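Input set for joint prediction.
Command: fold jointly, output tokens.
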Amino acid sequence: MPERERIRVGIVGGSGYVGGELLRLLLSHPFVEVVTVVSRSLAGKPVTRAHPQLRGRTELKFSAPEDLKESDVLFTARPHGQTMAEMPGYLKIAERVIDLSADFRLKNPQDYPTWYGYEHPHPELLGKFVYGLPELHREEIKRARWVAVPGCTATSAIIPLWPLVQRFRVKLVVIDSKVGSSAGGAEPGPDSHHPERAGVVRSFKPTGHRHIAEIEQELGLKISFSPHAVELVRGILSTLHVFLEDEYTEKDIWQTYLQAYRDEPFVRIVKERAGLYRFPEPKIVAGTNFCDIGFEKDEHTGRLVVICAIDNLMKGAAGQAVQCFNLMCGLDEKIGLDHWGLHP
Amino acid sequence: MPERERIRVGIVGGSGYVGGELLRLLLSHPFVEVVTVVSRSLAGKPVTRAHPQLRGRTELKFSAPEDLKESDVLFTARPHGQTMAEMPGYLKIAERVIDLSADFRLKNPQDYPTWYGYEHPHPELLGKFVYGLPELHREEIKRARWVAVPGCTATSAIIPLWPLVQRFRVKLVVIDSKVGSSAGGAEPGPDSHHPERAGVVRSFKPTGHRHIAEIEQELGLKISFSPHAVELVRGILSTLHVFLEDEYTEKDIWQTYLQAYRDEPFVRIVKERAGLYRFPEPKIVAGTNFCDIGFEKDEHTGRLVVICAIDNLMKGAAGQAVQCFNLMCGLDEKIGLDHWGLHP
Amino acid sequence: MPERERIRVGIVGGSGYVGGELLRLLLSHPFVEVVTVVSRSLAGKPVTRAHPQLRGRTELKFSAPEDLKESDVLFTARPHGQTMAEMPGYLKIAERVIDLSADFRLKNPQDYPTWYGYEHPHPELLGKFVYGLPELHREEIKRARWVAVPGCTATSAIIPLWPLVQRFRVKLVVIDSKVGSSAGGAEPGPDSHHPERAGVVRSFKPTGHRHIAEIEQELGLKISFSPHAVELVRGILSTLHVFLEDEYTEKDIWQTYLQAYRDEPFVRIVKERAGLYRFPEPKIVAGTNFCDIGFEKDEHTGRLVVICAIDNLMKGAAGQAVQCFNLMCGLDEKIGLDHWGLHP
Amino acid sequence: MPERERIRVGIVGGSGYVGGELLRLLLSHPFVEVVTVVSRSLAGKPVTRAHPQLRGRTELKFSAPEDLKESDVLFTARPHGQTMAEMPGYLKIAERVIDLSADFRLKNPQDYPTWYGYEHPHPELLGKFVYGLPELHREEIKRARWVAVPGCTATSAIIPLWPLVQRFRVKLVVIDSKVGSSAGGAEPGPDSHHPERAGVVRSFKPTGHRHIAEIEQELGLKISFSPHAVELVRGILSTLHVFLEDEYTEKDIWQTYLQAYRDEPFVRIVKERAGLYRFPEPKIVAGTNFCDIGFEKDEHTGRLVVICAIDNLMKGAAGQAVQCFNLMCGLDEKIGLDHWGLHP
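tokens >
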């Protein structure tokens, strides 16, 4: 690989699960130097305290927020609602900022009180963040200084729906997602207590989930969405029940997806005639940046069933962020993301 | 409890999971004597070889098919397609027959080639079996000699949909089910191999599932249905995404369900404001005959989300069969079914 | 069953997992009336808020501690260290007290600072509590007013070791236990956070576990003990690696166990030649009061491997407490405990 | 990286789990070209049929056994007992052979009838295979043409015990292992049927496990070993209960391990004062070639508890094989093995 100067990178919110994945990816990225990893709670402790899988990989220690160094690119990975007010400060100390919270995803300031329950303190910034989904906004991301990385279930809905919305008149969409526990973050609570969370199939938010706002923003389409917690740590499977106004065949859908995603490095169309893994499955994309899409036409009702699997911490967060990072820095977007999943 | 003569009961297909549940329930039933438990593969072996949870409970041994004794009531719990041809023989040696396979659920003989891929050898019997769902057919079951117990996912769809269909004009229904591995039966195969089945969220039959036939038969409504295998042994959670032609409020739905199921011994409406178990959850109905139903109106799209949890081996099979048995024998339908779930 | 006056029972610590199991058992006990269930945090709320599996079973509400009523028997099921100081108060308002914490299990006051890290405020009471293990102390329990129910892993060690210690000279014992997450109680914490606890095989306390104190007290034998957290909610499997001074055969061990436990209602010897469940397995005792024991002689080294499975919340806590309760009240000790496990 | 000719590699037994891991590793190895992957059952099918995680990574197809090409290095990864007779043929078509079955691990021909129940057809070859554990036999492996890769549980026992055996007089060792389901291979059976295997803590072979033979061969020490199946797909945690003749301190153990393994690229000593991952944990080594070792002295009995975690398919099979491959080919032994685990 050609020599080039390393890009200096900082991470805020470094002790969470997304922070851990960012570290895992960026420490192996050939063109990156991680200069600061901020964690309020673990400042001064080695990053392996929170991320034991990196033992032997790094001697980095967490820094206090006030010790955040200037950097070329800053990743902010704090829980929703906490980055909003701090953002102007971050924009001063980093040339580029990639935010992984929900705080800058929505363009319409009114959406924050509607979906998140609070006014946005910096509505003037909302229009300046690019929604960091390369499959839809690659060229904008390349030119962007500030990027807001999509939500995990939103990613699993928008990528498979986008080509359909472009080509067909969509009558109705129901998105039924099955989500692993890591999507809830690293903070313990009654709902994440193992005896309560283990073995569940839980409709924890049948209606009104916040990711609806960004899905509808990107697709320009009203959708019905219900996530379910299932026994899984990493991964999302979204089943999209799609009703089209137009007549269609499975071949039409094949063509639609191939045309849209043939050259996408992280989208795979998975629809096979035999084998156990005929359709997408979150197990085998765990740890990878893939977004696997499959589909089947229901000849009985005309419904199109689309199935999408991602790793919520990768294509649903840190992997997607690094993909954006590569694009923003003029690099091959696959660098640092060449992980293949495990099976079994 | 008053003295009465015990009802002599036989079980065919006794070494499967449904057979095991029938045994667990019937051995503790105060008015039942189990006279034969047939298993081709384990004839001569103690029933605890297949059902180790019953150690110390019974000394019964499996019998060969040819040793099946006459009985008052015969439960047939063999895999689909195997009971069809044998049924005339069974009808001769038992006064009443309760079949737990799919072989006698469908009224229209044409449905068998359409959904199951084979002609039914005894179409003349189909009209004579009562579909064993007490919530819909209690009075018929009481008078029935022959009952066909509903499929597990069908039960989780029909019970919550039935009152809605009675009261509202239903525009569209998508049923997205999440199913435990025991629903696949006791026979090992590549798809049930633990390393492949563990941790999956698998869309194994996105369209065309056979239970659609009986759901539509009972509801007189075209439905879209997609089951998913999730990491769970026992249990089904069905999420029903319902779109009504009529305007409605959550209060209307409350009233609809209360009116329909207020007096049902095994249907609970579960919809709470607080707590981790605000909606139905298969974990806490495991081992019980309950069918828990919850719901929420999506004010964003008008969709009604209905959530239904059952234990596929109990209300989805053996428990429902014993409930039918009680009704057929003039007993309190709750006898032998007073199990409360476990938590955590 | 003969008519008799119901025994009035109170529960302190009613919102925990052991409290939930006590409720499940006692609400179905034919001779019990539950008069108060105390929970500080949920006072005024229905008990089904914490124990959703009991929906439809009871309308009881949690009471504040100050509303604890007098009762014939009081079960105290609070976390370790909290009942010690409160016990004199409890002894005044109940004729009999059954404590499920560790606070009154150890006879030697010195053991509390050694193993639990604090002085016992009421050492004078320690000698007056009977260690509530019916297999060892049935007659004392029958006469007892106050009983301290054994720890869960201690139960899984003492029951299988006791007959060996009586008959053989034991050279060395290593107890390697595998424990479900419910043994840690209902209070969430970083170690019980699902993404961290799921899928672990964790040596969380390789040496120095507190239950060693009561195991050694009961057996009069120095033991080595290491518990491991495994992916499981309910259940303990303890593997006891036993080295005897004496020569022995498997037949000797059979005889030893049969002689000791032939008439025990809740001890089963499980050692079969065929099948998947040849040895004890926590899965199939979940929800039951059974203690299953199996063994095999290692002809290579002379080691005796003893395998013991219990449900930590049942034979390891609430079930054992109800067994003691029955004995203390002159009832058949099996009443209210006739649950058979589930399989699969 | 410097240019060099690619080493031509073949794989026999390519459709199993170990075959899949070999493919995952070797397809990303910069100096390897995979020329044939043999699978009897899937000949002609794409390798992604068995290994769906490699979709997009390779277009390779499985070959029939008769189409096995000559290669520089051949990996044989068939079930135990099947490679023995075929080996002479393999030795002719490949310069170097790395066998992952048990068929060439034991030096003493008599051990095969004793531990495996059959005579070895080629005892003359046994002495010529090097036991492929780099931590013990690095120099021999470098010079070896033929290597027999250790068993998975054997690896988790020998690596942590070896330095202790070198320095101390060991009185007694009990190895209690907890093993994931992938260790049983890709072939379904009754014991791997998900409803039976899920949630177990199963003592499936309390005594007499075959890996004892190779552990004792390598350590020259009699050991007691009991493996347990736990709910886990990948991974082994072995708890070694070690009793030494000599006095020792924890510091002595630290020194012993540091001295032995300080420079080992894949051995990490994990023993921390704080955090959830104070000791080794299979979860965070899944997918990696690490062997994590921790320990604690039991001051109560003098016992030394040693804890070892590996991924059974990596350091326990394919990863170890590739490490040997690198050594045999004069390459840096870490090449192709720089995977960091996932957390959570």
